[in-house]
Amino acid sequence: MEDIYIVMLVALFALAVTDLVVGVSNDAVNFLSSAIGSRAFSMKTILIVASVGVGVGAIFSSGIMEVARKGIFMPGEFYFEEIMIIFMAVMITDVLLLDFFNSLGLPTSTTVSIVFELLGAAVSVAVIKIYNSSGSYGDIFNYINTSKATEIIVGILMAVVIAFLIGAIVQYFSRLIFSFQFEKKIKYAGAIFGGVSLTAILYFILLKGLKSVTFISEGFLNYLDNNTLIILAAGLVVFTIISQLLMSLFKTHILRFIILVGTFSLALAFAGNDLVNFIGVPIAAWQSFELWQAAYASSGTLPSEFLMSGLQGEVATPAFLLLVAGAVMVVTLWFSRKARNVVETGVNLARQGEVTERFDPNFLSRGIVRYSVLLGNVIGAITPRAVSRKIDEKFQKPGAFTRDSEDTPAFDLVRASVNLVVASILISIGTSLKLPLSTTYVTFMVAMGTSLADRAWDRESAVYRVAGVVNVIGGWFVTALVAFSAAAIFAAIIYFGGIIAITVLIGLAIFSIARSFVLHSRKEKEKKLKKPFRRNDISTINDIVGESSKNISSIVCGVNQMFTKTVKNLGYYDKSKLKKNKKSIKKLESEIDELKRNVFYFIKSIEEESLDSNRFYILILDYLQDIVQSIGYITRNSYNHVNNNHKNLKFNQIRDLKRVDDKMQALFDEIEDIFANQDFARIDVVLAGKQALLNDVGELIEKQIKRIRTTESSPRNSELYFGLLLETRDLITSTMNLLELYREFNIAVETTRFSTGLPQKEQD
């Protein structure tokens, strides 16, 4: 009988290791984003400091493992076999949910997920118990620790508002004190700022955190409680002096030192607070197994008869398990690619300068920005001009925040310090109160609050940044809903399906993780192959030729593949593949949108003698946009035709389209090769075949006109076929105009007469 539960324990601990990996990948944004965003230290240094913090924090976490045992449900109301079902459902759900958010690159709360998974699984099993016993469903509150669960949920939601407001307030006054030109003032106020920051970290991380460590004596803890004010005052004096000595004697940048200590403390707080989310459940399962095993050995109590009242008491967590968990977290921190992806999302939403915005505006973000602007105008109207002018001077940004280099900071050291110190304090308060406070919520909202106060969200970027915040927060609510529902469903499946259901669900988790890994690796490879635009990379005519050639080759390659796939899938009447083609068009359109967004920086970076090249580059983008619009029309109309269940094109029509496709494929292959190798002498050869291609398409149009007058009976087919042929003609025309533009440009450059001789765009 014990064997099945031993197998379940092994599975739970295996899932715990996986959960640690996906969980740390998600939560790395909590303690890495500030240090990485400010570029205060190298990545290696940041990871070393964070690793030490995680390792120490793992030891501090032993005191809050009770959340998984009795924080959400009443263990005394469940039998051992039911408890194991709950724990198994929770771990499978957690692995799947966190990996899903990691794949999206969105930070979510591991605390919220574990809380609602425990709640969902416990409710599910409780409902089944009530149903089997023909009891009243009102008794479900006897199974759930409603007061504690409510306290946790309310605390998590309140943390969102509190973290945002405190982060904004602290950052606003910090900026008023230091401004963006903080190097001078840091010499005078830096010691006090360092003293306050380090004292706060000392109190909330060390003094409060020590209460969770089992090997600290009760007498020492009582001494700390009775002398808190004295310790704080002494700490403030000592750390202020230390900060001044570091600046004066050792020439240490105090803000960098605070960021270093803050990263350590936040990593420590993360491990101390969030480790329960990953290993609390399997440890509780192990402790449950030991309690039942003792009862079974003494009295032969069956797992379906042994109530788990023993989980109500205090049970120490073995230190070696904490150390192993800390080691897994550290290894994940160093090698997880998904962790970097999640960190990038948080950094970009808080970035001071320009960045390629990931999130699209929505009605909520537009409304928030619109009314915030109105509120700002009202406040500005009632504020004296002298005061407004003085405040604006403090927020004058230097030109250091750009999008050019990977080494450029996303924000300065002042904001990074505030992010780390405020988040560390808030998380440590939650840890000291033994609440599973969401470190993700706190750190993310502190970062967003400081970004707002620092005026990082200006009129150019606010609607996108707010949309990103709304999406992330919306994802948190989705986390709660999905965690509750999935855990409840999995618990019911395991309850009725037994070991077979467990095997199937674990197999599903393994398949999902493996598939996610493969897809993420593929995306990373594509990302590496795509060289991002850098303003400093383009300043001369040769740079323009190289950049534009790369863009043309990429777009033409995509259009070539899309045209061939569309014709082929339309011929087979394959709706699913046409739908994939339709979605793939967005990738080409996003490439054009990205190029258009960079036009401003392109023009700003061109050397004075190359300024006449600007119109050439803009016209190239114009023609590329026309090309993508044509292929977009062809692809979408083909899908809509099949999706609406209209008749397929006739064999002769498909055959004619295939012939056109063969010629288009040869054309685009030639053009792609020309621009990939920058062999522009061959452009004339391609242009010589322009009229022949257009004549071929024209002949097909004439042929279709004759079909309509004789045999064609489907107006929908004629509409689609004419549309495809007309857009193909436009596609050929735009492509040839692009080649003619490039030919004229190269002739002008070679003869050094390129000034205003660019041809106007033809209107077709």
Automatic annotation (TrEMBL):
Which family does the UniProt entry place this protein in? Answer: Belongs to the inorganic phosphate transporter (PiT) (TC 2.A.20) family.
What PANTHER family is this protein classified in? PHOSPHATE TRANSPORTER
Q: What name goes with this protein?
A: Phosphate transporter
Pfam families xref list: PHO4 (PF01384)
Which organism does this sequence originate in? Salinimicrobium tongyeongense
Query: Where does this polypeptide localize?
Result: Membrane
Report the superkingdom from the record. Bacteria
Q: What kind of membrane protein is this, topologically?
A: Multi-pass membrane protein
Q: Which residues cross the membrane?
A: 6-24, 45-64, 84-102, 114-132, 152-174, 186-207, 227-247, 254-272, 315-335, 413-433, 469-493, 499-518
What are the alphabetically sorted keywords of the record? Answer: Membrane, Phosphate transport, Transmembrane, Transmembrane helix, Transport
